[in-house]
Design a protein that fits this description.
- Chain B: Pfam families: ABC2_membrane.
- Chain B: Belongs to the ABC-2 integral membrane protein family.
- Chain B: It comes from Roseiterribacter gracilis.
- Chain B: It is found in: Cell membrane.
- Chain B: One of its GO terms (biological process) is polysaccharide transport.
- The complex is a heterodimer of chains A (248) and B (280).
- Chain A has 248 residues and is α/β, with parallel strands linked by helices.
- Chain A folds into two domains: 130 residues, Rossmann fold (3-Layer(aba) Sandwich); 105 residues, Rossmann fold (3-Layer(aba) Sandwich).
- Chain A is built from eight helices and ten strands.
- Chain A is globular.
- The relative contact order of chain A is 0.19.
- Chain B is built from 13 helices and no strands.
- The radius of gyration of chain B is 21 Å and the shape is globular.
- Chain B has 280 residues and is mainly alpha-helical.
- The two termini of chain B are 24 Å apart.
- In chain B, α5 runs antiparallel to α7, α5 packs antiparallel against α9 and α8 runs antiparallel to α11.
- The interface between A and B is large, with 42 and 37 residues.
Chain lengths: 248, 280
């Protein structure tokens, strides 16, 4: 029974790169869904999340939509523990696993086997746990003897198969995704879809940021419209999609 | 849209969890416990550099060997020193100096280079630094072959004092960890710092007894050595291999600096740990 409670969280990214004054002027023209503001020390900051509140419970399949720069990715990273809020609190019960970039940590010079091991370490597995999961990952990737070869020799499709198989080997309580992952040729695509769906089904809470309405309808039972670092609207998939269509 | 109202400027009610001691300590503990992760990251760094090359990391050993061989003969003549005494001194000096400088320089880029990973998944920050230390320790181990050869050629054999290298190395690595963590954080925030430090270290190389021996500096100038913290660390690492114990002063200075660096690191790390991902 995982649970997520985000209470009044604001995240500000200070802009340090020189000439902040003039940069501010450029950025002031509102070009995105984020907020440019000044903090207490009069620094220019991008307020990516602005007093955001959110409670997610077991069984929630949440989709995040919103304009570019609205804070969707920042919110996902907040939930993944990448950013710790200085204002507000985030309480998480359950094992979180972000599935943002399946190619993370793939070393082209290393063999398939080595990459499976390495990816497992990134997922927080111990070497023994990885060894236990390796046969299943290898089988799912259908790479056979290619696993002994450096990944650099793989075709793009093979590389994705390996990365996908390895990064979906762990079933987290809280699954976070930035865009749905499509992988490989038609045959593997179906297999990957099944595996990803079973991952979603097994998760207690799933949060995905995407603009694809089909995926939202297919996966989610709840939609959040994020804008300017806040939850602008919350509701059923169709309601929020309809509102967003007008909104944008 | 600008928000410059009073409310936006006023410091908000703060939750101090982000700068709590337990989180900072947990990061250090979990980092150390993730040995499989940082050791394979460190190995991977080296292998990426040398994959498909015939000698692999031993290219480093070879270039170190050539450098020591060439410099040893010439500088022994310049400084009027017997080669059999000068060569081991120079070899160890260069080995440990290289280790020290690459640890410091690479600590500065530890977090910046790992930006992609840091923004994707939560791993203890100390893991990235341990990876840097591990990588450089492996390189040191490869380079150490040069000293073994020099030692055999010039008849420098281990004595009981050589055992002192073990605590010396521990003190050195502990200090490097603390200094590296602080330096890594500062460098993530101020990107000019690594360049400044790198050029300062070049100067330090010449004022530290590496190419020359301490006894060549007589009288009041000897102060330049005693006040050089790098020398004390170098000496506790080097002396045991040359068959004599480092001086009490060497130990006192090294241990004090180790303790001091940990104090500073803990304060810094508690305060700025959670800022690192914002700075990248």
């Amino acid at each position: 029974m995982a649970e997520i409670r985000v209470t009044n969280v604001s995240l500000e990214f200070p802009l340090y790169s020189g000439g902040s004054r003039s940069i501010k002027k450029v950025l002031l023209r509102r070009s995105s869904g984020g907020k440019i503001a000044r903090d207490a020390a009069d620094r220019v900051v991008v307020r990516a999340l602005d007093g955001l509140n959110l409670t997610l419970r077991h069984g929630d399949r949440v989709g995040l939509i919103g304009p570019n720069g609205a804070g969707k990715t920042t919110l996902l990273r907040l939930l993944a523990g990448v950013y710790e809020p200085h204002n507000g609190t985030v309480e998480l019960d359950g094992r979180v696993s972000p599935l943002f970039d399946i190619m993370l940590g793939i070393d082209p010079e290393a063999t398939g086997w080595e990459n499976i091991y390495f990816r497992g370490l990134f997922l927080g597995l111990t070497p023994n746990e990885i060894r236990a999961k390796t046969p299943e990952i290898a089988e799912f990737s259908e790479l056979g003897d290619y696993l002994h070869m450096p990944v650099r020799t793989y075709s793009a499709g093979m590389m994705i198969r390996l990365a996908f198989a390895a990064s979906t080997a762990v079933r987290p309580d809280i699954l976070l995704m930035d865009e749905w992952i499509g992988a490989g040729d038609a045959h593997f695509l179906r297999k990957a879809e099944d595996r990803l769906h079973s991952l979603v089904d097994a998760a207690s809470i799933m949060v995905i940021a995407t603009h694809a309405p089909d995926i939202l309808r297919n996966l989610c039972n709840r939609l959040l419209l994020v804008d300017q670092g806040r939850v602008a609207m919350e509701g059923s998939v169709e309601d929020v999609l309809a509102a967003y269509a007008k909104y944008a | 849209m600008t928000d410059t109202s009073e409310a936006a400027r006023a410091p908000a009610a703060r939750d101090f969890a982000w700068r709590s001691w337990p989180r900072a300590i947990a990061d250090l503990k979990d980092g150390l416990a993730s040995r499989a992760l940082w050791s394979s990251m460190g190995w991977q760094d080296i292998r990426q550099r040398y994959r498909r090359s015939m000698l692999g990391p031993f290219w480093l050993t070879l270039s170190m060997g050539l450098m020591v061989g060439g410099m040893g003969v010439i500088y022994a003549a310049i400084f009027n020193q017997p080669v059999e005494r000068y060569m081991p001194h120079l070899t160890l000096g260069l080995l440990f100096w290289n280790y020290l400088t690459s640890l410091i320089n690479e600590s500065g880029t530890t977090f910046v280079m790992a930006e992609h990973v840091i923004k994707q998944i939560r791993i203890p920050y100390s893991v990235y630094l341990l990876r840097t230390i591990w990588r450089n320790t492996l390189i040191l181990a490869h380079n150490f072959v040069v000293f073994v050869i020099v030692a055999v050629v010039f008849g420098v054999y281990p004595t009981w004092a050589t055992l002192l290298f073990i605590p010396a190395f521990a003190v050195f690595v502990l200090t490097s960890f603390a200094v590296g963590l602080v330096f890594g954080m500062i460098s993530a925030r101020f990107r000019d710092i690594p360049q400044i430090i790198a050029s300062l270290l070049q100067v330090v190389f010449f004022i530290t007894p590496i190419l020359w021996t301490p006894d060549t500096l007589q009288g009041r100038r000897a102060i330049l050595i005693e006040w050089n913290p790098f020398w004390h660390f170098l000496e506790i690492l080097r002396a045991p291999w040359l068959g004599h114990a480092p001086s009490a002063l060497n130990w006192i200075v090294s241990l004090s600096l180790c303790g001091l660096s940990w104090l500073i690191m803990l304060v810094f790390f508690r305060r700025f740990r959670s800022r690192i991902s914002f700075w990248l």
